[in-house]
Amino acid sequence: EQTLIPDTPDTLAEMMTESGSGSGLPLLVQRTFSRQITLIQCIGKGKFGEVYKGTWRSDDVAVKIFSSRDEVSWRRETEIYRSNLIRHENILGFIASDNKDTGTVTQLWLVTEYHSLGSLFDVLQNQTVTKEDMFYMALSSTNGLMHLHMEIESMGDKEYRKPAIAHRDIKSRNILVKKDGRTCCIADLGLAVTYDSQTKNVNIPPQGCRVGTKRYMAPELLEDSFNHTNFDCFRQADIYSLALVFWELISRMDDDGFVFHKKHELPYYDSVQSDPPIEEMKHTVCTLNKRPNFSERWKSDFALRKFTDLVSECWHKNSGARLSALRIKKTLLTILETFQNSKTEKKEVNTINSCEKSDH
Ligand code: ADP
Ligand code: MG
Ligand code: MG
Protein backbone atom coordinates (compact mmCIF):
# COMPACT_ATOMS: atom_id res chain seq x y z
CA GLU A 1 0.00 0.00 0.00
CA GLN A 2 1.27 3.38 -0.98
CA THR A 3 1.89 5.73 1.92
CA LEU A 4 0.74 9.28 1.63
CA ILE A 5 3.03 10.61 4.30
CA PRO A 6 6.64 11.09 3.22
CA ASP A 7 9.06 10.21 6.04
CA THR A 8 6.27 9.59 8.51
CA PRO A 9 7.27 10.57 12.04
CA ASP A 10 7.15 7.72 14.54
CA THR A 11 5.31 9.38 17.35
CA LEU A 12 2.20 11.44 17.63
CA ALA A 13 4.06 14.30 19.29
CA GLU A 14 6.53 14.52 16.39
CA MET A 15 3.72 14.34 13.91
CA MET A 16 1.76 17.14 15.59
CA THR A 17 4.76 19.48 15.79
CA GLU A 18 5.85 18.74 12.23
CA SER A 19 2.43 19.63 10.91
CA GLY A 20 3.14 23.25 11.81
CA SER A 21 -0.54 24.12 11.70
CA GLY A 22 -2.35 25.55 14.68
CA SER A 23 -5.53 23.66 14.04
CA GLY A 24 -4.49 20.21 12.99
CA LEU A 25 -2.64 18.07 10.50
CA PRO A 26 -3.00 18.63 6.75
CA LEU A 27 -6.26 17.04 5.61
CA LEU A 28 -4.70 14.24 3.59
CA VAL A 29 -2.45 13.35 6.51
CA GLN A 30 -5.50 13.29 8.81
CA ARG A 31 -7.14 10.73 6.54
CA THR A 32 -4.06 8.53 6.21
CA PHE A 33 -3.39 8.79 9.92
CA SER A 34 -6.86 7.76 11.01
CA ARG A 35 -6.70 4.72 8.71
CA GLN A 36 -3.59 3.50 10.53
CA ILE A 37 -5.36 3.38 13.90
CA THR A 38 -6.25 0.10 15.61
CA LEU A 39 -9.35 0.29 17.80
CA ILE A 40 -8.85 -1.33 21.20
CA GLN A 41 -12.00 -0.93 23.26
CA CYS A 42 -15.16 1.12 23.67
CA ILE A 43 -14.76 3.71 26.45
CA GLY A 44 -17.88 5.79 26.08
CA LYS A 45 -21.32 5.67 24.57
CA GLY A 46 -23.18 8.83 23.66
CA LYS A 47 -26.58 9.42 22.12
CA PHE A 48 -25.37 9.07 18.56
CA GLY A 49 -22.08 7.24 18.58
CA GLU A 50 -19.31 5.59 20.49
CA VAL A 51 -15.89 6.59 21.73
CA TYR A 52 -13.04 4.09 21.47
CA LYS A 53 -9.56 3.88 22.81
CA GLY A 54 -7.26 3.19 19.89
CA THR A 55 -3.56 3.05 19.12
CA TRP A 56 -1.42 4.58 16.42
CA ARG A 57 2.09 3.06 16.47
CA SER A 58 2.87 3.18 20.18
CA ASP A 59 0.57 6.08 21.07
CA ASP A 60 -2.92 5.95 22.52
CA VAL A 61 -5.63 7.99 20.82
CA ALA A 62 -9.37 8.40 21.31
CA VAL A 63 -11.68 7.83 18.37
CA LYS A 64 -15.23 9.14 18.42
CA ILE A 65 -17.26 7.30 15.83
CA PHE A 66 -20.49 9.00 14.80
CA SER A 67 -23.38 7.16 13.26
CA SER A 68 -24.36 8.50 9.85
CA ARG A 69 -27.57 9.77 11.52
CA ASP A 70 -25.41 12.25 13.38
CA GLU A 71 -23.38 13.53 10.47
CA VAL A 72 -24.35 17.09 11.43
CA SER A 73 -22.59 16.78 14.80
CA TRP A 74 -19.49 15.24 13.22
CA ARG A 75 -19.36 18.03 10.65
CA ARG A 76 -19.78 20.69 13.30
CA GLU A 77 -17.27 19.25 15.72
CA THR A 78 -14.73 18.85 12.91
CA GLU A 79 -15.30 22.40 11.76
CA ILE A 80 -14.82 23.80 15.27
CA TYR A 81 -11.63 21.80 15.91
CA ARG A 82 -10.26 23.05 12.61
CA SER A 83 -10.77 26.72 13.54
CA ASN A 84 -7.65 28.82 13.75
CA LEU A 85 -5.91 29.08 17.10
CA ILE A 86 -8.25 26.63 18.82
CA ARG A 87 -5.44 24.55 20.33
CA HIS A 88 -5.13 25.09 24.06
CA GLU A 89 -3.98 23.06 27.04
CA ASN A 90 -7.52 23.04 28.41
CA ILE A 91 -9.34 22.09 25.24
CA LEU A 92 -9.26 18.47 24.11
CA GLY A 93 -6.43 18.06 21.61
CA PHE A 94 -7.74 17.42 18.12
CA ILE A 95 -5.73 15.13 15.86
CA ALA A 96 -7.75 14.11 12.83
CA SER A 97 -11.14 13.81 11.24
CA ASP A 98 -12.09 11.31 8.56
CA ASN A 99 -15.17 10.20 6.66
CA LYS A 100 -14.72 6.71 5.34
CA ASP A 101 -17.22 5.78 2.67
CA THR A 102 -17.36 1.99 2.58
CA GLY A 103 -19.95 1.91 -0.19
CA THR A 104 -22.82 0.89 2.05
CA VAL A 105 -22.21 3.01 5.14
CA THR A 106 -20.21 6.13 5.85
CA GLN A 107 -17.99 5.91 8.91
CA LEU A 108 -17.41 9.26 10.54
CA TRP A 109 -14.34 9.49 12.76
CA LEU A 110 -12.99 12.16 15.04
CA VAL A 111 -9.57 11.38 16.49
CA THR A 112 -8.35 13.20 19.61
CA GLU A 113 -5.81 12.82 22.38
CA TYR A 114 -6.70 10.03 24.79
CA HIS A 115 -7.20 10.73 28.50
CA SER A 116 -7.20 7.53 30.52
CA LEU A 117 -9.00 9.01 33.55
CA GLY A 118 -12.00 9.82 31.36
CA SER A 119 -14.43 12.61 32.11
CA LEU A 120 -14.76 14.71 35.25
CA PHE A 121 -18.00 12.82 35.83
CA ASP A 122 -16.07 9.51 35.81
CA VAL A 123 -13.42 10.88 38.16
CA LEU A 124 -15.99 12.21 40.66
CA GLN A 125 -17.80 8.86 40.53
CA ASN A 126 -14.62 7.02 41.45
CA GLN A 127 -12.98 9.29 43.99
CA THR A 128 -13.11 12.42 46.09
CA VAL A 129 -10.82 15.38 45.38
CA THR A 130 -8.64 17.49 47.64
CA LYS A 131 -9.42 21.16 48.16
CA GLU A 132 -6.41 22.22 46.14
CA ASP A 133 -7.20 19.84 43.27
CA MET A 134 -10.77 21.08 43.25
CA PHE A 135 -9.58 24.66 42.74
CA TYR A 136 -7.22 23.50 39.98
CA MET A 137 -9.94 21.54 38.24
CA ALA A 138 -12.25 24.54 38.38
CA LEU A 139 -9.50 26.87 37.20
CA SER A 140 -8.36 24.71 34.29
CA SER A 141 -11.94 24.16 33.10
CA THR A 142 -12.47 27.91 33.27
CA ASN A 143 -9.29 28.50 31.27
CA GLY A 144 -10.57 26.19 28.56
CA LEU A 145 -13.94 27.89 28.44
CA MET A 146 -12.30 31.30 28.46
CA HIS A 147 -10.22 30.36 25.42
CA LEU A 148 -13.31 29.08 23.62
CA HIS A 149 -15.30 32.22 24.43
CA MET A 150 -12.53 34.58 23.42
CA GLU A 151 -12.41 36.06 19.96
CA ILE A 152 -8.88 36.67 18.77
CA GLU A 153 -8.73 39.45 16.25
CA SER A 154 -5.85 40.43 14.10
CA MET A 155 -5.42 43.02 11.42
CA GLY A 156 -6.06 41.46 8.06
CA ASP A 157 -4.46 38.07 8.41
CA LYS A 158 -7.24 35.48 8.64
CA GLU A 159 -4.82 32.78 9.86
CA TYR A 160 -4.43 34.63 13.13
CA ARG A 161 -8.07 35.19 13.88
CA LYS A 162 -10.12 32.97 16.10
CA PRO A 163 -13.90 33.20 16.26
CA ALA A 164 -15.61 33.41 19.64
CA ILE A 165 -17.07 30.00 20.43
CA ALA A 166 -19.83 29.08 22.89
CA HIS A 167 -19.98 25.40 23.89
CA ARG A 168 -23.69 24.91 24.72
CA ASP A 169 -23.26 21.53 26.41
CA ILE A 170 -20.99 22.17 29.37
CA LYS A 171 -21.37 19.36 31.93
CA SER A 172 -19.11 17.05 33.92
CA ARG A 173 -19.36 14.37 31.20
CA ASN A 174 -17.98 16.77 28.59
CA ILE A 175 -14.92 17.81 30.56
CA LEU A 176 -11.99 15.37 30.55
CA VAL A 177 -9.31 14.98 33.21
CA LYS A 178 -5.66 14.67 32.21
CA LYS A 179 -3.36 12.10 33.78
CA ASP A 180 -2.09 14.43 36.55
CA GLY A 181 -5.61 14.01 37.96
CA ARG A 182 -6.41 17.71 38.10
CA THR A 183 -5.88 19.42 34.76
CA CYS A 184 -9.16 19.51 32.88
CA CYS A 185 -9.88 20.02 29.21
CA ILE A 186 -13.15 20.74 27.47
CA ALA A 187 -14.50 18.20 24.98
CA ASP A 188 -17.57 17.46 22.86
CA LEU A 189 -17.80 20.53 20.65
CA GLY A 190 -20.57 19.17 18.42
CA LEU A 191 -23.12 21.82 19.43
CA ALA A 192 -20.85 24.84 19.52
CA VAL A 193 -21.88 28.22 18.14
CA THR A 194 -19.38 30.67 16.68
CA TYR A 195 -19.31 34.41 16.37
CA ASP A 196 -17.27 36.73 14.21
CA SER A 197 -17.44 40.37 15.28
CA GLN A 198 -16.38 41.62 11.84
CA THR A 199 -19.41 40.12 10.15
CA LYS A 200 -21.56 40.31 13.34
CA ASN A 201 -22.70 36.85 12.41
CA VAL A 202 -23.79 34.34 15.08
CA ASN A 203 -23.33 31.00 13.36
CA ILE A 204 -25.85 28.56 14.84
CA PRO A 205 -25.48 24.94 13.66
CA PRO A 206 -28.46 23.13 12.12
CA GLN A 207 -29.33 21.48 15.45
CA GLY A 208 -31.03 24.74 16.45
CA CYS A 209 -31.13 27.03 19.45
CA ARG A 210 -32.50 25.11 22.39
CA VAL A 211 -30.06 22.24 22.53
CA GLY A 212 -27.76 20.75 25.13
CA THR A 213 -28.46 18.72 28.25
CA LYS A 214 -31.72 19.80 29.92
CA ARG A 215 -30.41 19.32 33.45
CA TYR A 216 -27.62 21.87 32.80
CA MET A 217 -29.71 24.30 30.75
CA ALA A 218 -29.76 27.94 31.84
CA PRO A 219 -33.12 29.36 33.03
CA GLU A 220 -33.43 31.67 30.01
CA LEU A 221 -33.11 28.65 27.69
CA LEU A 222 -35.65 26.65 29.68
CA GLU A 223 -38.06 29.58 29.52
CA ASP A 224 -37.25 30.22 25.89
CA SER A 225 -36.64 33.89 26.66
CA PHE A 226 -33.20 33.69 25.12
CA ASN A 227 -31.87 36.25 22.64
CA HIS A 228 -29.96 34.16 20.11
CA THR A 229 -28.87 37.15 18.04
CA ASN A 230 -26.72 38.34 20.95
CA PHE A 231 -23.63 36.17 21.30
CA ASP A 232 -23.09 37.22 24.93
CA CYS A 233 -26.25 35.31 25.80
CA PHE A 234 -24.60 32.08 24.63
CA ARG A 235 -21.55 32.80 26.76
CA GLN A 236 -23.75 33.49 29.81
CA ALA A 237 -25.62 30.20 29.35
CA ASP A 238 -22.27 28.33 29.36
CA ILE A 239 -21.31 30.08 32.60
CA TYR A 240 -24.52 28.87 34.28
CA SER A 241 -23.70 25.26 33.31
CA LEU A 242 -20.12 25.68 34.50
CA ALA A 243 -21.41 26.80 37.91
CA LEU A 244 -23.32 23.50 38.19
CA VAL A 245 -20.09 21.63 37.41
CA PHE A 246 -18.32 23.64 40.14
CA TRP A 247 -21.01 22.52 42.56
CA GLU A 248 -20.43 18.87 41.54
CA LEU A 249 -16.74 19.43 42.26
CA ILE A 250 -17.12 20.99 45.70
CA SER A 251 -19.68 18.34 46.67
CA ARG A 252 -17.00 15.68 46.16
CA MET A 253 -14.23 17.57 47.92
CA ASP A 254 -12.60 15.91 50.89
CA ASP A 255 -12.15 18.62 53.51
CA ASP A 256 -10.31 17.02 56.44
CA GLY A 257 -12.42 13.90 56.12
CA PHE A 258 -15.69 15.71 55.46
CA VAL A 259 -17.29 15.03 52.07
CA PHE A 260 -20.66 16.66 51.32
CA HIS A 261 -21.71 13.82 49.01
CA LYS A 262 -20.61 10.30 49.85
CA LYS A 263 -21.41 9.38 46.26
CA HIS A 264 -21.33 11.67 43.27
CA GLU A 265 -24.65 13.33 42.46
CA LEU A 266 -25.74 15.35 39.46
CA PRO A 267 -27.10 18.87 39.97
CA TYR A 268 -30.82 18.84 40.93
CA TYR A 269 -30.56 15.10 41.77
CA ASP A 270 -32.88 15.77 44.70
CA SER A 271 -35.40 17.82 42.72
CA VAL A 272 -35.95 16.16 39.34
CA GLN A 273 -36.17 12.66 37.87
CA SER A 274 -33.43 11.16 35.73
CA ASP A 275 -33.48 12.49 32.18
CA PRO A 276 -35.93 15.23 33.22
CA PRO A 277 -38.24 16.78 30.64
CA ILE A 278 -37.83 20.48 29.95
CA GLU A 279 -41.07 21.38 31.78
CA GLU A 280 -39.83 19.78 34.99
CA MET A 281 -36.49 21.61 34.79
CA LYS A 282 -38.28 24.86 34.06
CA HIS A 283 -40.53 24.43 37.09
CA THR A 284 -37.57 23.76 39.40
CA VAL A 285 -35.05 26.27 38.04
CA CYS A 286 -37.30 29.12 36.84
CA THR A 287 -40.57 28.97 38.76
CA LEU A 288 -39.19 27.81 42.12
CA ASN A 289 -35.79 29.42 41.39
CA LYS A 290 -34.16 26.45 43.07
CA ARG A 291 -30.39 25.81 42.93
CA PRO A 292 -28.24 22.97 44.33
CA ASN A 293 -27.50 23.11 48.08
CA PHE A 294 -24.33 24.18 49.82
CA SER A 295 -22.99 22.67 53.00
CA GLU A 296 -23.12 24.90 56.12
CA ARG A 297 -19.55 23.91 56.76
CA TRP A 298 -18.26 25.75 53.68
CA LYS A 299 -19.38 29.09 55.14
CA SER A 300 -16.78 29.02 57.88
CA ASP A 301 -13.83 28.48 55.56
CA PHE A 302 -12.53 31.60 53.81
CA ALA A 303 -11.57 30.00 50.46
CA LEU A 304 -14.65 27.79 50.30
CA ARG A 305 -16.98 30.66 51.12
CA LYS A 306 -15.40 32.70 48.30
CA PHE A 307 -15.83 29.73 45.99
CA THR A 308 -19.52 29.26 46.84
CA ASP A 309 -20.11 33.01 46.42
CA LEU A 310 -18.59 32.68 42.96
CA VAL A 311 -20.82 29.71 42.14
CA SER A 312 -23.93 31.62 43.27
CA GLU A 313 -23.06 34.57 41.05
CA CYS A 314 -22.53 32.28 38.09
CA TRP A 315 -25.87 30.51 38.30
CA HIS A 316 -27.79 33.75 38.83
CA LYS A 317 -31.28 33.87 37.37
CA ASN A 318 -30.43 37.13 35.64
CA SER A 319 -27.94 36.10 32.96
CA GLY A 320 -26.45 39.59 32.78
CA ALA A 321 -25.41 39.33 36.44
CA ARG A 322 -23.24 36.24 35.81
CA LEU A 323 -19.48 36.60 35.67
CA SER A 324 -17.40 36.26 32.51
CA ALA A 325 -14.92 33.39 32.23
CA LEU A 326 -12.09 35.90 32.59
CA ARG A 327 -13.59 37.25 35.83
CA ILE A 328 -14.04 33.70 37.18
CA LYS A 329 -10.43 32.94 36.34
CA LYS A 330 -9.17 36.00 38.22
CA THR A 331 -11.28 35.19 41.26
CA LEU A 332 -10.16 31.56 41.27
CA LEU A 333 -6.53 32.61 41.04
CA THR A 334 -6.98 34.84 44.09
CA ILE A 335 -8.74 32.07 46.01
CA LEU A 336 -6.02 29.59 45.12
CA GLU A 337 -3.28 32.00 46.14
CA THR A 338 -4.88 32.70 49.54
CA PHE A 339 -5.40 29.00 50.04
CA GLN A 340 -1.79 28.16 49.20
CA ASN A 341 -0.48 30.93 51.46
CA SER A 342 -2.59 29.69 54.36
CA LYS A 343 -1.28 26.20 53.70
CA THR A 344 2.36 27.33 53.94
CA GLU A 345 1.54 29.36 57.06
CA LYS A 346 -0.05 26.28 58.62
CA LYS A 347 3.03 24.27 57.71
CA GLU A 348 5.29 26.91 59.24
CA VAL A 349 3.23 26.95 62.43
CA ASN A 350 3.44 23.16 62.55
CA THR A 351 7.21 23.21 62.09
CA ILE A 352 7.57 25.87 64.79
CA ASN A 353 5.35 23.81 67.09
CA SER A 354 7.33 20.64 66.50
CA CYS A 355 10.61 22.54 66.95
CA GLU A 356 9.31 23.92 70.24
CA LYS A 357 8.26 20.43 71.26
CA SER A 358 11.64 18.97 70.45
CA ASP A 359 13.29 21.89 72.31
CA HIS A 360 11.59 20.89 75.52
P1 ADP B 1 -21.03 12.54 22.88
O1 ADP B 1 -21.14 13.67 21.89
O2 ADP B 1 -21.63 11.27 22.35
O3 ADP B 1 -21.53 12.92 24.23
P2 ADP B 1 -18.31 12.84 23.92
O4 ADP B 1 -17.31 13.50 23.05
O5 ADP B 1 -18.87 13.65 25.02
O6 ADP B 1 -19.46 12.20 22.99
O7 ADP B 1 -17.69 11.50 24.52
C1 ADP B 1 -18.50 10.61 25.31
C2 ADP B 1 -17.69 10.07 26.48
O8 ADP B 1 -16.54 9.36 26.00
C3 ADP B 1 -17.12 11.17 27.40
O9 ADP B 1 -18.06 11.53 28.39
C4 ADP B 1 -15.90 10.47 27.99
O10 ADP B 1 -16.31 9.62 29.06
C5 ADP B 1 -15.41 9.59 26.84
N1 ADP B 1 -14.37 10.28 26.06
C6 ADP B 1 -14.57 11.10 25.00
N2 ADP B 1 -13.41 11.55 24.49
C7 ADP B 1 -12.42 11.00 25.23
C8 ADP B 1 -10.98 11.10 25.23
N3 ADP B 1 -10.36 11.84 24.34
N4 ADP B 1 -10.29 10.41 26.17
C9 ADP B 1 -10.96 9.66 27.08
N5 ADP B 1 -12.29 9.53 27.14
C10 ADP B 1 -13.03 10.20 26.25
MG1 MG C 1 -20.72 14.32 25.51
MG1 MG D 1 -22.07 15.57 21.97
TrEMBL record:
Catalysis performed (reactions): L-threonyl-[receptor-protein] + ATP = O-phospho-L-threonyl-[receptor-protein] + ADP + H(+)
UniProt-annotated binding residues for ATP: 64
Cofactors, names only: Mg(2+); Mn(2+)
Keyword Signal: yes
GO molecular function: ATP binding; metal ion binding; transmembrane receptor protein serine/threonine kinase activity
Keyword Transmembrane helix in record: yes
Gene Ontology biological-process entries: cellular response to growth factor stimulus
Domain Protein kinase: 37-336
Residue ranges annotated for the GS domain, each copy included: 7-36
Protein name (database record): Serine/threonine-protein kinase receptor
